[in-house]
Design brief:
44 residues, mainly alpha, 1 helix, 52% helix, elongated, SPW_0924-like
C-alpha cells in the first residue's frame, strides 16, 4: 500500500511540474539562420 501511495504522489508531482511549465510557456528566443553541419566538409 505504501508503494502505491508513493507512486501516486510521484505521479501527481510530475503532472504538477508539467502543468506549471506549460502555464509558464516557452522562453522567448530565435533560431539561427545558419544550418548545422552534420558532416565534416571535405578539403580539396
Amino acid at each position: 500500500m505504501r508503494a502505491l501511495t508513493a507512486a501516486a504522489i510521484g505521479l501527481a508531482a510530475a503532472l504538477a511540474l508539467v502543468f506549471a511549465l506549460t502555464a509558464v510557456g516557452a522562453p522567448d528566443g530565435h533560431t539561427s539562420p545558419e544550418p548545422l553541419l552534420t558532416t565534416v566538409p571535405e578539403h580539396p
